[in-house]
Write a structure and sequence with these properties.
single chain, 500 residues, mainly alpha, MetI-like fold, two-stranded antiparallel ribbon, 6 strands, globular, disordered C terminus, ABC transporter permease, MetI-like
């Protein structure tokens, strides 16, 4: 691999000016990738902003009455999101529509190029994931461009980490499945064969046309009525269920079949349920990871009383039964604004963030203690460098790798625990979809023609949790050159599960 050599130290901007072509080519393609999805990206950014406005506003509202200001901010954000929704995007339902109706001649009207809804949806599905994988590949290509053309050193320890990760098939499997899961959550509005609003939120508020074979005419109904008539009701008669890859009597294609009453689309519920799981997992791991790193660096640097206090507090928190705490918090905050987010999803994420930081802190405490004893840390102290600077520059980079390992394994435990709580009826509340909740709704249909209701989300839960553990195992083996890559280590990681 050829690499540009630099004989003197130059800022990155100067290095790019001396050899602009690789950066321009990469930047041009990257800008194009963002441009074709600009409307969707702006919508996601505004949705995130709205979430923070609601959270911060809810906290401050208990101190100062900001109801009017918060309402104005939310209204402005909603207007901006509506405007962003008008921006054409490549991966949208309007570009490749899949909802249409049959014609008397046997064709389809309203679908992409007159194709059947199943084929139209499949094209959109493939386009979404092709875009996602190429986007990730191009990010990797950007790192490769930097290494080849703009990096000073011929070699860094990171090169060995990347090389070990290239050969770690078990970790690569985990990465691919996790990427599929994240794509399902991010592109849920595009991937869903039926919009979430029509399928779950306001099924009786939107109508659509369908071809009635009995009368030979195109009639009109709403999704709520069609859902009731298309519910998978179990039993031994396959005619009483809409199963995998089938159409209902209203010409709507269901890639994974339908649910019990009110008979919503299973794939739509799984896609938006992935959003809930990802939200809970990322927020919980973000909170617990931040606390763990902060205390890990603090206790490793100062030791003594600081370390003893953290040990006592972490032991006390780990002694609290998680389910009892969740039940208690659900009752205490039942009428609070926190319980309204994702119908309990935010509350669960906050509780998990509080419960999981002791485990992560203990996992990174050892490496933090180890690096705090290194000569460069003692040298920084002797030269009078501030403690915060020493922790940030000389200790944090060493700890981050271990944080990624344990965070990726813990997030799988958070997802499966959230599903288990929803299965028991104390997790995410309807109508917000959640995978464990879907399994609970379909458990009485396992031995019937509607077996898909519980089996598919159950398999997805196992697959995603295993993938997060596999990814964590791959990162661990890549960071630690003494660990085994793949093989027995991979088998052990799969068997032990993670974080829960």
């Amino acid at each position: 691999m050829s690499q540009t050599q630099y004989t003197q130290e130059l800022p990155l901007r100067k290095r790019i000016q001396e050899n602009p072509r690789p950066a321009l080519v990469w930047g041009g393609v990257f800008a194009l990738l963002l441009l074709v999805e600009f409307g969707a990206l702006i919508g996601m950014a505004l949705a995130t902003l709205e979430f923070f406005v609601q959270v911060v506003g809810g906290i401050l509202n208990g101190i100062v009455d900001l109801t009017g200001l918060i309402a104005s901010a939310e209204s402005a954000i909603d207007s901006a999101r509506t405007a962003a929704g008008q921006i054409p995007t490549l991966l949208s339902r309007d570009v490749v529509p899949n909802q249409g109706h049959r014609t008397a001649a046997g064709g389809w009207e309203g679908t992409f190029l007159g194709l059947s809804p199943g084929v139209s949806w499949s094209i959109r599905f493939v386009l979404v994931y092709a875009y996602l994988f190429f986007f990730v590949y191009w990010l990797w290509k950007g790192y490769d461009v930097f290494v080849r053309h703009y990096r000073y050193a011929d070699w860094t320890p990171r090169d060995d980490v990347v090389e070990r990760l290239r050969d770690h098939r078990w970790g690569q499997f985990g990465f691919v499945v996790v990427l599929l899961f994240i794509g399902l959550a991010m592109f849920a509005p595009t991937l869903a064969p039926i919009t979430y609003q029509d399928d779950t939120i306001r099924p009786y508020g939107a109508s659509f046309e369908y071809y009635d074979e009995g009368s030979g005419e195109v009639l009109e109904t709403n999704h709520g009525t069609a859902n009731l008539a298309s519910a998978s009701s179990g039993g031994s008669n396959p005619e009483n269920t809409v199963s995998i890859g089938e159409y209902d009597d209203y010409g709507r294609f269901h890639p994974l079949g339908t649910l019990p009453t009110p008979g919503g689309d299973l794939f739509t519920s799984l896609a938006y349920g992935a959003r809930v799981s990802l939200f809970v997992g990322l927020l919980a791991i973000g909170i617990s990871g931040f606390i763990a790193v902060f205390l890990g660096l603090l206790t490793a640097y100062y030791k003594g009383l600081a370390d003893l206090t953290a040990v006592v507090v972490s032991d006390s928190i780990q002694a609290i039964p998680a389910i009892l705490l969740l039940i208690l918090m659900s009752v205490v905050f039942s009428d609070h604004w926190i319980a309204d987010f994702y119908n309990g999803g935010l509350l669960i994420a906050l509780v998990f963030g509080f419960l999981y930081w002791p485990g992560i802190w203990r996992a990174i405490r050892g490496p933090a203690m180890q690096v705090s004893e290194q000569e460069w840390v003692d040298a920084a102290r002797s030269y009078g460098q501030r403690s915060t600077v020493t922790m940030r520059k000389h200790m944090l980079p060493y700890v981050v790798g271990y944080l990624l390992v344990y965070a990726s394994m813990t997030i799988g435990g958070i997802i499966i625990t959230t599903s288990a709580l929803s299965y028991l009826g104390i997790g995410i509340n309807p109508p917000t979809p959640e995978w464990g909740q879907i399994v609970a709704n379909g458990r009485s249909y396992v031995t019937t023609a509607s077996w898909h209701i519980a089996l598919i989300p159950g398999v997805l839960i196992v697959l995603v949790v295993t993938a997060f553990n596999a990814l964590g195992d791959g990162i661990r083996d890549a960071i630690d050159p003494q660990s085994d890559t793949g093989g027995e280590a991979a088998s052990e990681a799969a068997a032990t599960g993670g974080g829960g």
